[in-house]
Structures are given as structure tokens and as C-alpha cells.
Write a structure and sequence with these properties.
With 248 residues, this protein is α+β, with helices and mostly antiparallel strands. The chain is built from 9 helices and 10 strands. It has 3 domains: 72 residues, Arc Repressor Mutant, subunit A (Orthogonal Bundle), CATH 1.10.10; 93 residues, 2-Layer Sandwich (Alpha-Beta Plaits), CATH 3.30.70.980; 69 residues, YebC, transcriptional regulation domain (Alpha-Beta Plaits, 2-Layer Sandwich). The protein has a 4-stranded antiparallel sheet with strand order 3-1-2-9. It has a 4-stranded antiparallel sheet with strand order 5-6-4-7, with helices on one face.
């Protein structure tokens, strides 16, 4: 398992999910607000908003909280004027990081991200140095006890593009706009879905075999994601289960 999905697994194993839920909801609300402002408040006519609302519902964000964020974005109630910024950087071991930010203060966010890299042993990169390695994809993880033939048949029938073994699970790749429809189709056939997201996937991964490097990488990602302006952090590392256990 690698990069962003690996990071999600690590956070879950650290027991950080409940602690981070409030922060996650605040970030999702900000994303919904921006999507609503830029593309309109109707999810049926706004694919970006529809994807974020689906993500929010999957995270168990309430309908009332979602509606409030949509209304703020549509100008029905007050809201901040956020802008989207992508920062790029490197963690130890040559691991590439893509940092997705929504902020109402560009100078503050830039200073915060630089400080995190400086303090925790990473380095900022020039625009474009990292981003070319990533593309937006739908990623779904399904029951790893399925045979390869069964997993492939179920995923392709549901509209997926590819299936590959990733740790103990099967990783299903889709067009980013199809991820929630494919998830629903899989579940309708009885396939257990462990996670689904519209995310950034690296074309190639960097193996991390040194425990100290692994600790530093995860500290940087943890520090970045703890920042209120940072919406998501994507990475191209790959860690074995042994390294994960050593880090935890």
C-alpha cells in the first residue's frame, strides 16, 4: 500500500480518526463552500460539489452541516473568500509531497507550510517539480479475501478501470467522477468496501526501507495535515507492513 492511502491506514491504526473528525469536518465544510461558490449550489449540475458532498457523507458529516456550507458558498449566508493553492515539497528519502490548501490568507499559509518543512526535515519544491507525478483518480479498497478473478469481475462490472493487490486489500481504480457510483455498484453486489475517495495517485512510488526516514515522513505529513488551511497531503511513498509496525 502506498502514499495517500497508506497514510490513511496509518492514521486509523494510530487511533487518530475520532480525534481528527472535528478538524476533518471543518475542512470538508470549507471545500463544500468553495465548490458551491465556484460551480453553483446544485450538486447535480456541479460535479466537484457532488464529489465533495459524497466524501462528506462517507465521513458521516451531517446533512445540516453540509447544507450550511453550501449556503455559505452560494452567498445565502456569510462566509470567507478562500483561494486554492498547491504547494510542493520533498520529505526524506526523496519522497514527493503535494499539499492541497484552501486559505483566506496566502501569506499565512505559505509561511506555515514552509515552517513545517523546515522544522521537520523536509524541503519546499518549485511549482511543477512534484505535481507532474500525480493524477486525480478514484480509489476504492475492497475485501482482500476475494480471489483475483472475483475481484476483477466485480470491479469491472461496476465500472472500474483497474484492480491490483495492495497490501491485504484489492485497490480498485476509477475515473474520479465515477468513484461513488462504482462504490455503490460494488456494495449492491455484496462486495465489502473498506474505503473510497477521489484523490491524487502517483504514477510511481518511492520505497521507504529506513525506519527513521519513515518516522520523519509521517511527522511531516502529520504536521501538514494538522494545519487548518491544508485540505489534503498526497505522497508517493511505499512502506512495507514491517516498516509500518516499526514506526507505530
Amino acid at each position: 500500500m502506498s502514499g495517500h492511502s497508506k497514510w490513511a491506514t496509518i492514521k486509523h491504526k494510530k487511533g487518530a480518526a475520532d480525534k481528527a473528525r472535528g478538524k476533518l469536518f471543518a475542512k470538508l465544510a470549507r471545500q463544500i463552500e468553495v465548490a458551491s461558490r465556484e460551480g453553483g449550489a446544485n450538486p447535480e449540475m456541479n460535479a466537484q460539489l457532488r464529489n465533495i458532498v459524497q466524501k462528506a457523507k462517507a465521513a458521516q458529516m451531517t446533512n445540516d452541516a453540509i447544507d450550511r456550507a453550501v449556503k455559505r458558498g452560494a452567498g445565502e449566508t456569510g462566509g470567507a473568500n478562500f483561494e486554492s493553492i498547491i504547494y510542493e515539497g520533498y520529505a526524506p528519502g526523496g519522497v514527493a509531497l503535494l499539499i492541497d490548501v484552501l486559505t483566506d490568507n496566502r501569506n499565512r499559509s505559505s509561511a506555515d507550510v514552509r515552517a513545517i518543512f523546515s522544522k521537520l526535515g523536509g524541503s519546499m519544491a518549485e511549482p511543477g517539480a512534484v505535481a507532474w507525478q500525480f493524477s486525480r483518480r478514484g480509489v476504492i479498497y475492497i475485501d482482500g479475501s476475494l480471489s483475483e478473478d472475483d475481484a476483477m469481475a466485480a470491479a469491472l462490472e461496476a465500472g472500474a478501470e483497474d484492480v491490483a493487490r495492495d497490501g491485504d486489500d484489492w485497490r480498485v481504480l476509477t475515473d474520479p467522477s465515477d468513484v461513488w457510483d462504482v462504490k455503490s455498484a460494488l456494495e449492491a453486489t455484496g462486495v465489502k468496501v473498506t474505503s473510497a475517495e477521489n484523490t491524487m495517485v502517483a504514477a510511481n512510488t518511492v520505497p521507504v526501507t529506513d525506519v527513521e526516514d519513515a518516522k520523519k515522513i509521517l511527522k511531516i505529513m502529520d504536521g501538514l495535515e494538522d494545519n487548518d488551511d491544508v485540505q489534503d497531503v498526497y505522497a508517493n511513498f511505499d512502506m512495507s507492513e514491517e516498516i509500518m509496525q516499526a514506526v507505530n
